[in-house]
Amino acid sequence: MCLCMRNPRNMTVAVIKILALICVVILHFRGNAPALDNGLARTPPMGWNSWNAFELKIDEALIRSTADAIASNGMKSAGYEYVIVDAGWKANRRDADGRLVADPQKFPSGMKALADYVHSKGLKFGIYTDAGSEDCVSNAPGSKDFEDKDANSFAEWGVDYVKEDWCNTNGQDAKEAYRKMSLAILATGRPMVFSMCEWGDNKPWIWGASVAHLWRSTGDSKDCWDCGRSTMNKPGGYPRGWVLILDAQPPLAAYAGPGHWNDPDLLQVGHPGLTVEESRAQLSLWTILAAPLISTNDLRSMSPEIREILTNPEVIAVDQDSGGTEGTRVRVTGKREVWMRPLADGNRAVVLFNRSKSTRTVRVRWTDIGRKQTDELPLRDLWKHQNLGVLKGGYSVLVPAHGAVMIKTGLPAN
Ligand code: GLA
């Protein structure tokens, strides 16, 4: 029997060494994976996607006027840059050369003209396709076996971001299917962000970093608090409330980092199914998750209150933190939760989240966020834009129903 088994101290050292070795192996493989390494998405992508507000009812006028709105209403200067046309843009048939074609009724000027327009606003252009034989709901051709051709079309049109869905993929291997598109994108020579939308069915967080910049970790999100609970464990894109999607994220935090992100789906901020407090809470929590911030509300008509939420620079700075560490839930006390994300400069972003239907006091203890009880930490409220002084031990605050308070703690002052 080895020595370590007889001496508890040696055994501890051996366990630590084994754990360290496992970490090194994991980091080695993550670091050297043949990633879609085109230097994009070093921080989580930000933008707008047409799906949740408009579904198939999209056309070039809508996309142009949305680009106009983003460029002029503060969204662009807040960091939202990708204007992503989701399902509904394709004609139902490829052309005689097998190329994808835009629906001539909805996009008569074609996708290149639309991309040019979006670029003229200083924004970037995103497009949707599917890894299977057909898109999900529009009877349009998918990219299966046409990866090179489609990636070339996207590059010719000036696409900057490709979202690839997972419908009608019977029998396909997810990793192989997405790798094909990933290599096709690389081969075009045009830098494009690649977003895998396979709903977490094949644990894309494990292999995704070698294929794409981001991968959906669950089925579709819907503009409700926790609807869809009964279908949530079924594979596929069943729509569900955003807190159910949130609950699926904590185990995945270690898989994210610069250039490769977990994607807990589109923001529901500003949709009628969310209260203003819920909108604020979702954005706060998505920044803790280092999530892509892709808005989906109608940006041409949003209220000043929602615009202020989506463009809060202090909250967005947390999402875009250069460290790229995904945060997680660090305390649950009934319906009161504390979520924390360590930032590159050693500070901590903290969300105090109240899931109950009435106002509650939520407390974060400094020991919850990797600090000492005796530490004196400078505090700032990121929604009120106020310094809260230097506090010892922790911080308690009243949080509205289904709402969140978001703070940032500085380094210990003592
Ligand atoms: C799937 C995706 C959604 C959206 C729709 C479009 O459900 O998960 O994000 O793209 O398809 O059909």
Helix content: 25-40%
Number of helices: 13
Radius of gyration: 22 Å
Please state the average pLDDT score. Answer: 92
Number of strands: 18
From the N-terminal CA to the C-terminal CA, the straight-line distance is 49 Å
Low-confidence stretches: 1-6, 11-34
| Bound molecule kinds, no repeats | alpha-D-galactopyranose
**Fraction of residues in β-strands:** 15-25%
The computed structural class is alpha/beta
Neighbour order of strands in the largest sheet: 9-6-5-4-3-2-1-10
Which short descriptors sum up this protein?
6-stranded antiparallel sheet; alpha/beta; disordered N terminus; binds alpha-D-galactopyranose; 18 strands; 414 residues; 8-stranded parallel sheet
Structure description:
- The structure is a single chain.
- The protein has 414 residues and is an alpha/beta fold.
- Helices cover 30% and strands 22% of the residues.
- The protein contains 13 helices and 18 strands.
- It has an 8-stranded parallel β-sheet with strand order 9-6-5-4-3-2-1-10. It has a 6-stranded antiparallel β-sheet with strand order 11-12-13-18-15-16. A two-stranded parallel sheet has the order 7-8.
- Helix 7 crosses helix 8 and helix 11 packs parallel to helix 13.
- The N and C termini lie far apart (49 Å).
- The N terminus is likely disordered.
- Alpha-D-galactopyranose binds next to loops.
